[in-house]
Write a structure and sequence with these properties.
The complex is a heterodimer. Chain A is α/β, with parallel strands linked by helices. Chain A is built from 21 helices and 18 strands. In chain A, strands 7, 8, 9, 12, 13, 14 and 18 form a seven-stranded mixed sheet that branches. A five-stranded mixed sheet of chain A has the order 2-1-3-15-6. Chain A has a two-stranded antiparallel ribbon with strand order 4-5. By secondary structure, chain B is mostly helical. The radius of gyration of chain B is 25 Å and the shape is flat. In chain B, about 30% of the residues are buried. Classes of the chains: A alpha/beta, B mainly alpha. The interface between A and B is large, with 66 and 65 residues.
């Protein structure tokens, strides 16, 4: 009898093994502990700080730094602020050296040690969630990966304005970011993150073609006018003509390197709340939520893709090939792709494609509702010393020394500075052997506080700001966010419906006449109307 | 239960005698406890709306709301059907093939036996991601072996394998069998090698041929192993091999009707949503149903053949 009971118990345990992961991941005890500690700490610091300001000697921020330095002197140990984000290759070999340099500077400046915790992009989301829910130290993190709304909904993020945190300790950072961009990151009125300073607008639907192929096919580029960013203005007819020409000149190469980006990069449709199940088709003028897959715009793209596929411009394996569009061009087997452009895009895309690319601008510039709040920088709600963390964040945005170290590594080792303040590789260093080259400028807090790479305009920061400001199609819903967790079942069903019928249309493998109807029927059967109604309701509520 | 003095003495004696065995079992038991029992309180997560600020036990109770997600859509039927039917087919096909191969290997006297064994086992060692590319090598449109060599040689039209779902139930069963029978057959093979050879000798003296020996000796003596392996598989009938159903069809939407299982559904859904509570609910649901299934299967075995029931 006993044996049987034991066996049953063991069996039950074996079957619940899969739950072990979940349990581990969410072990809350340490989190709760540190949260309490945090409250204590901040209350304490605040009290002291207030007393000092009353004396009129030091500002709150200066006082906090002085306190930390005094504490460090007494104990011989500096407190540490951990900053986490991802790169493409995992922790760089020279990370410890860069961290030592950073700490050397921040000890003097803020009385803290600073540690960058760089994680491989593939592992970042999981690792970060584990750290945030298990109480491991990470104070500041980029939400690029897990997603801003996911972090907010799970309660990982701290309120950055609690007790005047941002105003008192991040004043310079605050003044650097336009109020409407800051407001775009508010969720339910609370500011949980600050956006990285970058291009929020995108130049949609840019066709990129390898310059060598254009030359080989004898395409005349002089007929194209230049747009504001200096790229060739073209129409879809021009693109069709050029595709035909390069296809004829290079029959062994595949013309068009596809990806599922018709809507994300090729249109001004606003995917409010982060998905395309209910969009704003005319985001600059209207807040009406509509089904984009029934729109003329999508039909036009679908027809184009089908036509290109029929003409043999698209690989037969396009559906299963999940390599990046640019890396396929780099391989030399593909010639053209579609992407979104921005100021100083030429250098970036040439690097990605491994060859000189010619940029044809076919679409408009566009700033979507989530453009600013896509992946803000957040603070862990369990951070022991939010003030120190905020001050470090402030430095990351404003201090060239910190920004340069974080973006480019150490001067003289990784890079050298040219006479015009732009930088280039140090002697003998290249992207492959560099000990510190995260190559994720676009997610760094403020890439423009750091040096500009040789070949990019020195004033790229101003150019980008102007590009953002002048964007003609700005979504009226800028900053709208929506927690769809009450509609999780519908959302998953919609995703599955889209995956079943959508990609074939996007890659041009199915005649839009039949494909679009199939897709829309499946979407409505999966509850699209309900989902759109819920979105519309939330949007109306927000717009009030 | 009250114990008599004699029993107590016996127990004490036994405990002392088996101390080395208990020590040997200790690391395993410790592991079992840490890995499988300590996280059990975390199961409450399935009934909460998790918030890191409040912690597991402080989060809001939401009852069965997290489970609703699994049943709310029409996909619920498809994923449950796929998971169970595939597993039933796998259990039958893999057991038959594994036993068959094990018997062949056991009867083999060639010096190459070891090499055959290794070759059969090899697919089991290969990661599913790599398997998916091996399959892709056969099925690709532009360069695939089947479309470009076999079908073109036969003068047939190429098939868009990754867009046509009718072929996939067969492909998946085949790939799964190819991958796992090597491992399963080792277990059966070791059971066969454990059978007393003298039984076979006396059978052959009595004039039993190879086929009769297999039918009358090997299979009956293998039965406990087969039953145990099947019971274990039945307990996991609500789980699916994620790699097989996600990687091998290259995550192609056009094939969802025949490749979407509970695991892939939950993965796809929750990857986007990132909701820990819903993931726990899905895991708990699978565990509970799996537990019920295995108890039921064991009950049936106990009715039919009490000696071979697990408990």
């Amino acid at each position: 009898m006993k044996k049987k009971a034991l066996a049953t118990l063991l069996l039950a345990a074996m079957l619940t093994t899969s739950l072990a992961g979940c349990g581990d991941a969410a072990d809350s005890t340490p989190t709760a502990g540190t949260a309490e500690k945090k409250e204590e700490a901040s209350a304490e610091t605040k009290e002291e700080a207030t007393v000092e300001t009353a004396d009129g000697e030091l500002s709150l921020a200066e006082q906090a730094i002085a306190d930390r330095k005094a504490k460090a002197q007494a104990s011989g140990e500096y407190e540490k602020v951990v900053v986490s984000f991802f790169d493409w290759t995992g922790a760089p070999a020279g990370l410890d050296r860069v961290n030592a340099k950073l700490s050397e500077y921040t000890r003097e400046k803020l009385g803290v040690d600073m540690e960058l915790l760089i994680i491989d992009a593939a592992a970042y989301t999981e690792d970060l969630k584990l750290m945030l829910s298990s109480g491991e130290q990470v104070d500041l993190f980029s939400t690029c990966g897990p997603g801003y709304m996911t972090c907010v909904n799970n309660g990982y993020t701290a309120d950055l304005e609690e007790d005047g945190l941002l105003d008192n300790y991040g004043a310079e950072l605050k003044s650097l970011i336009r109020t409407d961009y800051l407001d775009a990151c508010r969720v339910g009125g609370t500011l949980y993150g600050v956006p990285p300073i970058k291009d929020y607008a995108i130049q949609t639907a840019c066709i990129l073609i390898g310059t060598e192929y254009l030359e080989g096919a004898g395409v005349d580029l002089s007929k194209f006018e230049k747009d504001d960013l200096g790229y060739n203005k073209a129409t879809w007819d021009d693109v069709d003509e050029m595709f035909a020409a390069i296809h004829e000149a290079y029959p062994d190469k595949i013309v068009y390197s596809t990806q599922d980006n018709l809507l994300t990069q090729g249109s001004c449709v606003d995917n409010i709340a982060g998905d395309y199940f209910g969009c704003l088709l005319d985001p600059a003028n209207s807040l009406e939520v509509e089904n984009v897959y029934e729109s003329d715009l999508f039909k036009e793209w679908a027809d184009r893709a089908y036509r290109w596929n029929q003409a043999g411009y698209i690989s037969g394996d396009a559906m299963t090939d999940d390599n990046g569009a640019s890396s396929r061009i780099k391989s030399g087997a593909y010639m053209a792709m579609m992407a979104q452009a921005k100021p100083a895009y030429q250098n970036q895309i040439n690097g990605e494609c491994g060859r000189d690319m010619t940029i044809f601008d076919v679409g408009d510039a566009f700033m979507g509702s989530s453009a600013v709040s896509a992946f803000p920088w957040c603070m862990n709600q369990a951070t022991e010393d939010p003030i120190a963390a905020m001050q470090v964040l402030n430095l990351l945005y404003t201090d060239p020394v910190v920004a340069n170290l974080a973006c480019w590594g150490e001067e003289g080792v990784e890079y050298v500075v040219n006479a015009d303040t732009s930088i280039n590789w140090a002697e003998g260093v290249n992207p492959d052997n560099s000990e510190y080259y995260p190559n994720v400028l676009w997610l760094m807090p403020n890439q423009y506080a750091a040096h500009v790479w040789e070949g990019d305009p020195i004033d790229v920061g101003e150019q980008t700001a102007a590009f953002n400001d002048n964007c003609p199609v700005k979504s009226k819903a800028l900053g709208f966010t929506w927690d769809n967790s009450d509609y999780a079942a519908e959302f998953t069903a919609l995703q599955n419906a889209y995956k079943e019928f959508g990609p074939q249309i996007v890659y041009g493998f199915v005649d839009p006449e039949t494909g679009l109807k199939q897709l829309n029927d499946a979407l409505y059967a999966a509850g699209l109307q309900e989902y759109m109604d819920a979105k519309q309701e939330a949007l109306n509520e927000w717009a009030k | 239960m009250k114990m008599t003095g004699k029993k107590e003495k016996n127990l004490k004696k036994r405990l002392i005698r088996y101390i080395p065995l208990y020590i040997m079992a200790l690391p395993g038991l410790l592991y079992l406890f840490v890995n499988n029992y300590m996280p059990l309180p975390g199961l409450v997560l399935a009934f909460k709306k998790y918030n890191a600020k409040k912690g597991i036990f402080g989060s809001k109770n939401v009852g069965f709301k997290n489970f609703k997600y699994l049943f709310a859509t029409k996909d619920a039927f498809v994923i449950t059907r796929n998971t169970i039917l595939y597993n039933i087919v796998f259990i039958i096909v893999n057991t038959l093939l594994a036993v068959f191969v094990a018997i062949l290997l056991a009867e083999m006297t060639s010096k190459l036996k070891r090499i055959y064994q290794i070759i059969i086992l090899l697919p089991f060692m290969i990661s599913m991601v790599i398997v998916s590319y091996l399959v892709f090598g056969f099925l690709s449109n532009d360069n695939g072996f089947i479309n470009n060599t076999i079908l073109s040689a036969l003068g047939k039209e190429p098939i868009q394998w990754y867009m046509q779902k009718q072929y996939w139930p067969f492909i998946l069963v085949f790939v799964n069998a190819w991958k796992v029978i090597g491992y399963n057959c080792i277990i059966y093979l070791s059971a066969i090698l454990g059978i007393d050879r003298s039984i076979y000798e006396s059978a052959s003296i009595d004039g039993a041929g190879k086929w009769a020996q297999v039918r009358k000796i090997t299979i009956p003596l293998l039965r406990p192993t087969i039953i145990m392996m099947t019971l274990l598989a039945v307990g996991r009938i609500f789980y699916s091999d994620f790699g097989l159903f996600y990687q091998v069809p290259q995550n192609q939407g056009a094939l969802f009707a025949v490749t979407n299982t509970i695991d892939t559904y939950v993965y796809r859904g929750l990857l986007e949503l990132g909701d820990i509570s819903m993931a726990s609910a899905a895991g708990l649901y699978q565990s509970v149903v799996g537990f019920i299934f295995i108890l039921a299967a064991n009950l049936i075995v106990r009715k039919l053949d009490p000696d071979n029931a697990l408990f």
